[in-house]
Amino acid sequence: MTLAAVLCCVMTTTVFTACTSEESHPNTYRYEVKLASDYYSYYYDEIQTVTAAFNQAVNYTQMLSSPQDNEMKSKCEAVKQKYANINCPYMKFNLFRYTTAVGMEGKEDLIATYEMGPALTTPYVKYAFVTNEEEAYAALEAKKPTLSDEVYKASYKTLSRLLGRHRGSSGGLKSAFENHFATSFNDYWPDTDENTRIIVLACDSIANAHAADTLVVDATVAVTKTGLFDQKVTTFWGRMFSPTIQ
Question: How many Cα atoms are found within 13 Å in the side-chain-facing hemisphere of 21?
Fold first, then answer.
């Protein structure tokens, strides 16, 4: 009886230990770096290259049995130093650690952040045109009954040159100002006196070329610059076109 009791106890302990081992699901860890800043169309290839370098360094598809935060941070710092002289104004990357286990909800932890780019030491801004487009076209339509067809069409054409016509699925018409700068205003640029001078000279030239065009309503065009980090908006050029026909 005593031997049977001992054997029973041993068997019970063995079965319990085996079940516990089978039900044990240790955590696994994976690291990945993601772009956290705005995308800059002029620097698409450079952004892709740097992002790939970060994730190659941390081997983002590798599953680890234990956390390696310090090692991954060191690898990311090395990538940051390698690409210290990038052309893109600003890149911000976040290093994440993903923790998973069978039967458990995954967990995402932000481990570190890496900022790069010349905008960290030099102010950068984005330029934009601001106009009274909607008001000007509405005023023209209100005057239409009193205008000849020739004057109405000529005035409409002048507004489209000065202000553009931004409506409809196709994006409408771009103004002469927008066409001159094409896609340049889609990205950030160093906030320098030279860049300001170039824009002012071009806008003055375009405005003067259309100053005598047929126009029966007021039209205004201005250029603003918005800071990359502080988002401060400043107007540094503007022109009001008064009616040339009363």
Answer: 6
Helix (H) or strand (E) holding 222: strand 219-227
Residue 164 to residue 177: CA distance in whole angstroms: 9
Structure tokens at 91: 């890149």
Q: What is the DSSP string of 9-21?
A: HHHHHHHHHHHHH
Return the amino acid letter for 153. Answer: K
The structure tokens listed for 157 are: 């054409």
User: What is the Cα–Cα distance from 20 to 2, expressed in whole angstroms?
Assistant: 27
Residue 38: both structure tokens together: 């705005």
| Cα gap 136→17, rounded to integer Å | 83
Identify the helix (H) or strand (E) that includes residue 214: none
pTM summary value: 0.79
pLDDT along the chain (246 residues), means of 10: 50 47 75 90 92 98 96 98 96 97 88 97 97 97 97 97 82 92 92 98 98 98 97 98 94
Neighbours of 215 (CB within 10 A): 25
Among 242, 225, 243, 227, smallest CA distance to 130 is for 225
